[in-house]
Amino acid sequence: MLKTEYTLVCTEKQFEAETFPTVVYGIRADKDGKSFYEIPDFSLSESYALKIISLLKEAEPEEVHIAEIIEDLLI
């Protein structure tokens, strides 16, 4: 059985007009080289996003539960 691979996603997002873009972090989940879940901008903190990835790797949830788990962790 293939494990889910989690990747840190780093993008820039402009929150207000005429301001500089802010770096935001998210997570992408892949299995067998195919992406099946992505939340691109849930955190301004790289270390927080990496902690969420670490928790997901440790828990090894089923694919259908990943979105629910991430939502619960972000509350």
Beta-strand content bin: 35-45%
Number of helical regions: 2
Helix/strand-derived category reads alpha+beta
What coarse outline follows from CA principal-axis ratios? elongated
Radius of gyration, CA atoms, in whole angstroms: 13 Å
Measure the end-to-end span.
Answer: 31 Å
Topology as H/E string? Answer: EEEHH
Helix content: 25-40%
Extract low-pLDDT stretches: none
Short account of what is shown:
The protein is of the alpha+beta class. Helix content is 31%, strand content 39%.
Question: In words, what does this structure look like?
Answer:
It is built from two helices and three strands. Helices cover 31% and strands 39% of the residues. The longest helix has 14 residues, at 46-59. A hairpin with an 8-residue loop joins strand 1 and strand 2 (22-31). The protein is elongated. It has helices at 46-59, 66-74, and strands at residues 5-13, 22-31, 34-43. Strands 1-2-3 form a three-stranded antiparallel sheet, with helices on one face. The N and C termini lie far apart (31 Å). By secondary structure, it is an alpha+beta fold.
Which short descriptors sum up this protein?
alpha+beta; 31% helix; 3 strands; 75 residues
Helix and strand layout, with pairings?
Blueprint: E1 5-13, E2 22-31, E3 34-43, H1 46-59, H2 66-74
Antiparallel strand pairs: 1-2, 2-3
